[in-house]
Amino acid sequence: MTGGGFGAGAFNALSARTAACVAACDALIVASEDCADACLAQSGDGDVTACFLADLDCIEICTTTSRVLSWHTRTDGPTAASMLDTCMEASRASSAACELMLQHRPDWTSCAAECRRVTDACAELLALL
Q1: CA 47 to chain centre
Q2: Is 122 contained in some domain?
């Protein structure tokens, strides 16, 4: 990856944050797939449906964000920034849906922690752009 007008230190920080964001997105994809699968095993109500749909959104958006960040030689463009913003929003929505499931189903295995990890990783990378 080249960092455009970044000096070596800034470029190294950008590379590290990009790698951390990609890793967080990839981990959330797996956690969201597991969460969506668990939703399918539940009796349907509005909370289950909301959680399932939030998981699906998160899977697609994290997949795209991870791919965009992985194949670009630069991550300081408007596409990367837009994807990071979108990924943070999808992660927040999924986290909120999973937290709501936890209120009614204490034994629920939530992907909320992974969602927060993605939100933080995206915000940290976005701050460097």
Answers
A1: 21
A2: yes
CA distances from 11 to 5, 64, 81 (A): 9, 23, 16
How crowded is residue 128: how many other Cβ atoms within 10 Å of its Cβ? Answer: 16
- Predicted TM-score (pTM) of this structure: 0.86
φ, ψ for residue 24, nearest 5 deg: -65, -45
Burial 72-95 (b: 16+ CB within 10 A, else e): beebeeeebeebbebbbebbbbbb
Tell me the per-residue pLDDT of 89-124, one tens digit each, with 9 for 90 and over. Answer: 999 999 999 998 888 787 777 889 999 999 999 999
Query: Is residue 3 included in any domain, yes or no?
Result: no
Residue 69 C-alpha from the chain's centroid: 12
Range of the domain at 20: 8-128
**Phi, psi torsion values for 92, nearest 5 degrees:** -65, -45
